[in-house]
Every structure is written in C-alpha cells, then in structure tokens.
Fold this protein.
Amino acid sequence: MATLVLLGGGACMKSKITFTLDGQTIEVPAGSTLLEACRQAGSEVPTLCHDDRLHPYGGCRMCLVEMEGAPRLVPACKTQVQADMQVRSQSEKLERVRTTIAQMLLSEHTPGNGVQEDQLQSYAKKNKVEAPLRFASSAAWEDRNRFLGFDPQACILCDRCVRYCDEVMQCSALEHVGQGSQARIQPTNGQSFLDTSCELCGGCISTCPTGALYEKQAVDADGKVKARVEQTEKTRTVCTFCGVGCVLDVHTHQRQVVKISAEAGVGSNDGHLCNKGRFAWQFIHHPDRLQQPLLRNADGHLQAASWEQAYARIREGFTRIQNQYGSDSIGFLASSRCTNEDVYTLQKLARAVIGTNNVHSCAAT
Amino acid sequence: MTNSIAEIEDADCMLVVGSNTTEAHPVLALRMKKALRRGAALIVVDPRRTWLAERATIHLQLRPGTDIPLMNAFAYVILQEGLADFAYVENLTENFEAFAAAAQEWSPERAAELCGVDAEQIRRAARLYAQTEKAGIYYTLGVTEHVCGVDNVRSLSNLALLTGHLGRSSVGVNPLRGQNNVQGCNDVGNNPVFLPGYQLVEDEATRAKFGQAWDCTVPAAPGLRLDQMMDGMHDGRIKAFYVMGEDPVVSEPHAKQIESGFEKVEFVVCQDIFLNETSRRYADVVLPSTCFAEKDGTFTNSERRVQRVRKALDPPGQARSDLRILFEVAQALGVDWGEPDAEKVWNEFADLSPKFFGIRYPRLEERGLQWPCPDSSHPGTPFLHEGAPLRGKGLFYPVDHVPAWEEPCADYPFLLTTGRTLYHYNAATQTARSDGHLDKQARCFVEISPDDAREMALDSGSTLRVESRRGAIEVEVKVTDAVHPGVLWMPMHFAEARANVLTGDGKDPEIGTPEYKVTAVRLVR
Amino acid sequence: MDIRCLEGLRGCGGAGFAAAFKWEAVRREAGGDKVVICNADEGEPGTFKDGWLLRHHVQTILRGMQKAAQHCGATRGFVYLRPEYQAHGGILLEAIAALVEEGLLSAGSGQVYAAQSFPGRPAVLASSGLSDCALASLDWHVQHGAQELVGQATAQGGVELAPPSHGYALPPRESGPIPPAPSSGHPFRLDLCWGGGAYICGEETALLESMEGRRPQPRHKPPFPTQSGLWGLPTLINNVETFWWAERLLTGDCKTPAGSHRLYSVSGAVQRPGVYEAPVGLSARALVEDFAGGLREGAEVSCWIPGGAATGILPGSLLDTPLSPDGLSAVGTAPGTAAVVIYSQPTDPRTIAAQIMRFFAQESCSQCTPCRLGCRAAAAWLEGSEAFPQVEVEAQWLEAMELGSICGLGFTAPLVLRQWRRWFCSAEVPA
C-alpha cells in the first residue's frame, strides 16, 4: 500500500546508490539499510530484534555483516548503505559468529508455550544450533490481565516490545530494567498491565520474535495451550470495531477461535490492532448467541421456532401490513456493521420486493 | 475521507476536530502519533483534554456546539492576514463572496467569547493551519452529531477551500468513520434518496436501470430517513420494521420516545447475533444470523477501500448467514433470487454502479481497492479532488452559529456531551461480553471538572444521579480536569446507564443526525 | 587559537584517541550550536586521578574546557560527574562561580542536572568516608558497584544510599542566546550534570544517552559525537585529565611535551597509594619503587593491572614492561586509564580476573547479546562454577564478543580472560 500511496501522491522517485555486496554491484534506493539491501539482493541475513515498523536497534547482533574498513562487524539493520561500500553478508566467519550468537541466546532462552511463532527456535532448528550451556532462568511473571501473557524465560531482551510500546503506541507500558544478568523486560514499574498506561493493544505480542509475549486467551484456564500456532487455520478478514478497517487474521482450531493477529506490512493498519480488534472476540462463542429463530407467541413471549415457521410468519406479517397500510409503512434498518453485500441485498429487498425506499442506517459519519 | 490513512503520517499539520482519535480510532491514531513524533504540528478542537489534546501544539477547548463560530473565526484570520490561497479560490471555487461576508461576522474576539477559548490561540491556530503546506483536517462525531452537523462539516470544508488544502497527498478533509461499514452502507444504497452507487432515486432513468436489473418497478417517492422512521412510528407512517443488526431502542436518542413508538408498531422482524433490547421487547420474529467471522463479503473502510471479509467459522446452531436469510425472506415473499453468493451480489452492485465498476473480488485479494474505480484497469483512488474539486468548483457555504437544540439553563445547568472509550464499542454488546475489557473499564462514569466537583462536594467513585428533561440515570463520578466547569462527559456504551435516556430530540434538519453531543442536565447527589 | 601544541596529547579516559583531532573535528562542523563535555564519570576500577584533579586543580580543568569551547565554537558545556564524587560537586560549582565572576564563563552557568540511570539501579552509592582511592579499588566496585549486591547491602544496613544528587533531568535542548562571557567575549555556559551512576556511563555515547534522559546504552557509531552528540549537536567529549593537560599545554605551564607524561593512579600492595605524574614509558616497577614508596612490607606480587580493570592482569614477571602503548601492546594490552593496581600473594590471579569479569557482566548495559551473555559466561568460567562447566565454545564466544559487541565494554572484556589464560595457565588453553 505504501507504494500505491507514493505513486498516487506523485512523490518523486528516490535517488539510487550503488555498492558492492558479496562481490556483486547492487543498486538500492538512497537511505536503505544494509538489511534492506541484503533482502533486495536475496541474501538471507537473520535478525531477531528488527521490525520494519520500528527504528533499527542493532541489539541482537544476528545480522552482523563484514564491511571493508570497519574495525569490527557491523549490524546490517542499523547501517545505512553508502555509495561504494564493500560488504560481505555471507562468509565462514559470519556463519560462525551468527551461530555463536544464536548459541548465546539459546542458552538463556526456554521455548515459550507455542501460541506464538518462535523465530529463534526456527533459526536454531534450521541451522542445527544448540545451546552449549544454560544460564539461570528468569523468574516467572504473573499478571491478572486476561489478554497479555508474558513468559520472561522465553525473552531474549531484543527490546522490540519496549520499543513498540514507546515508538508506536507511545504508551511506555513496558520497560527494560536492570543491567547484565539482572536485565529484564517488565510491565512498567513491575505492575500489572491493568494498572499502568497499557492499553492492552497487544502490539507487543505482535512484535515479539520468540513468543515470550503471547495471547492469554489462547491458553485454557488450566494452562493448556488451545492450539499451537502451526496447528491453527488462518483466515484473513477485516475488523469490525471502527471505520479504519484493519486487516486481521482469525486463527481457528476445531471450529473455535484461538486468537486474532495481524501481519506487519498488510493493510492500512500495517499489522497494528487495538485491544478490541485483537482481543474482543469472546462474543463469537458466547452462550448468548442466537442459535435458532424465535417467534413471539400469544402470551407475548419469544419462543424457539423453525426457519419455515419464521419465514411463514414474516410473509404473513408483511403481506398484511402491505395490504392494510401500503408498502411505505414498512421501514428497513441496517447496521453499519453488516457487509456491503448484506446491506445491498436488504435495500434490494425493500425496493424490489416490498416496494419502498424506506431504507436507512445509523450512518451519519 | 478524501485522503488515505497511510498519508496521515506525512502530514505537517493536523487539525483534529471533535475526534478523540486515540480512543475511537486507535490504529489510525498511530499514524498521527508517528507524525507527531516526526514533529508535525497538531491543533485539537475538542471540549475535552484528550490524549492528543495534551500533546497538541494548540488545544482549543471549546464549549460543545460552537464549532461554526470557531471555524468562521479561523477564516476571518486567514482572510484578514492574507493567508488564503487566492489562486485556488479564484479558479476552483464558487460562492466565495457570500462565505467571506459570513466569516467577517466572526472576529476571533467575538468567537472566543462564545466558544470559551482564547482569541490569540484562535489566531495562532488559523495561521498554523493556513501556512502549513501539508495540512489535513480530521473530524468525527464531535462535528456531526449536532443540530448543525452538516453546517459544521461545511465550515471545515470552507477552510480547506479557502487555503487550497485539498486534493493532495496528506491534504484534505477527512471524516473518520465510526463503524466498520458506514462508508459501504452509503455506497451500496442503504439510503432513502440514493440507489446503490450514489444514484438518485428521483432520477427516472436511474430508476428504470435498476428496475430492469431487478425486474421490478423502483418506487419513485424518496423514503424516510432513520429519524423520520422513528417519528413515523408515532404519526402512523411506519407500521412495520425489518431491523438488521441494529438496536434502535439503545442507540437512538430520547430512548423513551423510541420505546413508546415501538409499542405502536405492529410487526417487527429483527435479524441479529444476540437478543438486544429492541428484539427482546418488540420483535415478532427474531432471526439468528452471523458475525463477521462467519461470512463472506466486503467492507468499505473510512478511506473508501473495499476489502474482503472471509468466512473463518460456521455459524452456531441453526444460525444462517445474513445474505442467505435475506434471499430466503425474498423467496418467502415470492421472489426467487437464486443461490445466495456474496461475489455475485457484489458483481450485481458493481455492474450497476459506475464508480465501483472496476472493483471485483479477484482484485481485492491483496490490499483492496479505493473507489472511485471505474474500470478494470483503474488502480483506485488514494485521495480525492486531485487537481480540482470533483464537482468542478468547490462550493463555499456561508454558515453561521446555530444554537444547540437544548442549552443549559437554571434548572438544567450542566452541558452533557457523550462519546466512545478505548475499551468498549457502541452498545457494548460485544465488548461487555469480554471479561478482559471489563477488567479495564467495568462501569459507566461521568467526567466532571474539579471545580464543579468541589462545589457539589463530589469525589471520584461516588454515585450520582444525572437528570435531563427526559430521563435520569445513576452513574459513577470521575473528577478530572479534562473537562471545563459546566461541562460533563460520559461514554455511551453501558446498558445500565444509557446515555440516550437523557439525550433529546435535536437533530440536523437536513440529514436527521441526532444531537448526541449537547444535552442539558442537572446533577442530584 | 593555535592548538599545535596539543599534537601528541592522547585522551586520558582509556581509549587514547588523539585530543587535537577531536577538537578540530568539532570545530569543522557547521553551525553555532555545539557542546563541550568533560567526562568526569571516573568509573574504571583502579582509577582515581580525575577525582584527585578535581579536588586539587579544578580551575585548570574548567579553563581547559573554556578554551576548547572557544576553539570549537561551542556555547554549552557540561561536567558529567560521577555521582559517588559527592564532595567534588561543591568544588566544581564554586569554581564555576569563580570563573563566571572572572568573566570567563557566561552568566547563568552553574546549573545542576542529573542524568538517567538504569531503571532499578540506585542513582548513587554513598561514598562517605571513602578516599578517592578506596572508591576506585576493584574490590569496592565488585562489592558495591554492582546493582544486585547493592540491594542486599542496603537490606542488611551495610551501605547507606545517598539521595540521588540534587539535580533535575536535563531539559530538551533549549534555544535562546547564551550571553557572551565578558572577558573572553565568547558565549559559553558551563553546567554540572550528575552522572547516571553506572560503569557504562563513562562510555561517551552512553553518557550522552543518560544525559538525554534515556537508559545509558551506548549508541552505534558512526555517527561519532563530534558529528552528532548531545541533542544531535557536534559534541566534544574529553576526559578530566585531558582538559587539564590541554590547559597547561596551551598556557605554556606544562614544560614537558604533550603526551610524554601521564597521571598514574597507583594502588594495591604499595607503600604510598596515590596519584603520580610520571613519564610515559616508565615500568610499573619503577613507578612503584620511585613514586609509590615500594611494595608493602613483605608483599610478593601475584599479579598486577597495568591501566585499569579493562586492561586485564599481568604476572609479576612483567613488572619491567614499559607502560607505553608499544610496551603494553607487546604483551597484549594497552595503557588504558594508567591505573596500576598491584596484588600480592596469596591473592589468586584467577580470583582477580573473575572479579573483573563479574564486574563487567554485572555492568553490561544488556543491549547487545555478545556482551550481555558473553561476559556472564566468561565470569562463570573464571569463577570455575561447577554448575557451569568450561565449554569448548570459549574461543568462538570470545571472538563474537570482540567482533560483535556494540561498545568497548563488550569488545575489550575478553582480554581479561585471554590475559589470564596467556600468563597464568597457558597449559589450560583450549584448542
């Protein structure tokens, strides 16, 4: 979408610069980072602390590359391409350093509960890296909120959640406290998310690379995960909680919603959601949901009925009213939350079948 | 919206009027936050000190219902100081003189007195908006839900025309839609005067076109608007209702009046996913339907982007998709439309609607399409009015102050205004069924200024009775300097404290939008 | 101003960068808003010469800063002071007031600010009764500097925490003219900023972050502070001693050539621990015997530190190594902060190496993986923790720290382990 807007806005094309990557001359837009350039060139550079929606951090060091003239390796995510740079993104040395850093992270990391993808584990599996030692685990985190689960043992201190909350939401509901072995991520002041400026948007979950932050609603009351992320079926659709139209993915398993997520780079929301869009889906499976037609009986009570009975009653009701008072005595109201197709069909029902233009909805903005 | 959501982050000046964006449109507000962090200027016009207002370059904390004098004063300053885009005005607008004359009536000093803001702040804000090249206006229900809602919007579009702030990326006039498919509802003809695709009912050729497509005679008489239908229950014009996914008893103003109206209606069909107040009390037939996750179709968002809605689940029990129900109702009434299929329905709509003709399901897969999109090769329209206003020349409307339908008085001295919160949505039928949301916000509350609270010896957490001429509710007090003395604010979400028990009969005479934003009330301890 | 006399003067804060080069780099930057910062966050274990200078030669240092400001075109200056140096704060403010009086500094100088620390870490540790020397000793740091021990110590009533030093957070960059100082004609406002209290705050970019109110995590370079420092302005950051030398060189008070002498902090098992000005290239043995009164009675050297903890430990057999860049480079280390610490038998060199590494592990800002976890592993290896067996990955881990850390803490920390392996247990070096 960004591209569309750029072109539509008539913004001038950015200037290009060339540099050498792994022996090839590469042309990239000015201002690109080495990471972007590597991606463009098809060179796979791993990263854990980077999210395109956040300022580069350069903390995890998985994306280190060799740059001619630099005394040490440089992080691709944090380094801007300069003309005529000489860069190597793949080498034996880099392989060794990346493996080592993955080893380090694996040594302090315990895989999370599987509600979220774990990019560190995926990298380890793919590249056959194992933890050579084990640091003491961090203390568990209990929080009485029902949406955001946090497992500090799966955290690798990439700061993505803290930076997301600070840069994107500007809520600062998470903080990186302490140093060295005492360093940890915690909800600000060590309080429950319910008691801080946290807005429960769950953006921290969406950016967490290891599943240390996860959707609590995907876990049963007894702590059992309803479905691991790879077990769920994903359906891409659109949120109904305001007019922004965030694109989201409904994850289902055995005909139940497990969680809702959004993918960065997709839709006008770019992977962001609010607390309603991400978490307010309990209503879908709520016992109050209407499951069969109801008809009001002679005593004035609503009573379960079959669809045939319901349609018969509607035919009888509308025919009588039409005959007695005319078509224009019937009004049609549609919620502004129904689909275009539903609403189109409703107004067609009014105009073509009943014969009235009395169609409207609460659609003032 | 004349612009796209993604363009907001590139704006250099944002004029946000009557919109608590971070709570009502949290994800869109992220773009504003990004612009803010980049250093963009922000002017907030709102009776409450919202999150954005706290960070605004200028916050004009006006008295609810005084938007037009304020915007006219903006225009006054812009004209007086020669900050208008005279070339734009000259070439691309009409009716400037009449508008200028109306604006001349409102010096910042005069407006300041009525609006309760500082005249110098009005001047600064007007200059900031006029002198920033990339300046956009964003507004919501704080502008429209007034007796003069339409004129309020006109006062904003006047400003955009006057400064030539229209028709460019990040530059335009942007209503932020409150519900996910407000835009689409209008687009597909759910309107008493428009057939689908904004084609007028009164046009005979149009009626003939639709009549042929639908194999019927489209009635020529314009229908009744929502508010007229509500009134129609009392005067006998309306005898039956088909209500799809609405709860008018809760969501319409002056609830008692609505309830007594429904008592008189003879036949009501409600189609919904939950039993609501309207269906529980008045429906003759209740049809169980589907929520968004259980159906296929499209929504059209605020930026006119048509996006695909896809079915993830089967509906519970015997519930059926809304589309299937409507097809079956038509069949019950003797018309066979064949098999219900969302894509076929969309195609029928697009075939009949030139602005939407190029939008088809296969093209929506990736990122949707923004209308107008007249043909299959058209890329969609990220922002409107490029080069010139769509109608050729932008029309200035001279507008003047319209007093609220009900002003505070000795008996009802407080001005109550209403809105949304971050944790709930509309009548909260969905969010109130989410324990995690109730954890953050379980109850209704009314915001009152520290001065008023002191005078009435009220503390946060105490309970209070709020009375209007039409009804009363009990509600928890929240003392905050976010509102000025004399002004109260409460959310509209809570069934046990329905703000619409209090609201009145004021509405915009042109389109019937109720005045939810101004109600005179008194407080009883 | 002719600064050719500074040729040869190397920064005295540890990294040893050419001072004149920095001065010129900042001077060449465009724009009138530039900053000069005196790094007085003397935290390198074993080092206390800056504290001594501030006590005894504070005016010389401030005059040096003023000259730097005038040369570079800087209008704002700060002394970033280690918060444990409570007593020095008053000395500095008095000196600033005197220079305002004299007309060398702009009116309004002498504001007091406080930098950000790591959340969860006390901003300042009480230094009551401790000499600069005692404050700087490695033991003291390890026992009191590391935050996890601070909490325990306070719980036991051991160390009393002083209030976070009377200053407000530095406000965002203020605009508005600084009045010219009457006698120099150059506008230069000099203020005091209490440091964040962590070891890493001495790293110049972490120092800047803490001044700007964020976690003191070092920045990625480039850009260097000379290009984009405090508030993004070109910023000259020099050590206390560097400004002292510069002032004396520029006024001709210093009779020795630039860079030929340094101030040595000598401590440990010597007769007279203290700060000594000595020629660069003297051996540690000469320094101890000719300046510090010789070894303590009966002491036998077990190991020694040539230039602060980050330079690692050397065996007694190398006491004759010249303390020059070349001399120390030949034995795999560097002059650092010129802090010589002598340990005597029966102190086990491994204990010292482990203490240093534990200190680094605790003081790591935790931003980058290699430093945060590498130091932690190296400390455990040196401590010989049974629960944490020596592993064959050591070589790769140290390499990753050296090549992949963000700042000097991470990429010099492996030196301690390497030095220990090289000089004390060569037989144990893994393949």
Chain A has three domains: 2-90, 134-285, 306-361. The first helix of chain A runs from residue 2 to 8. The mean pLDDT of chain A is 92. The CA atoms of residues 173 and 198 of chain A lie 5 Å apart.
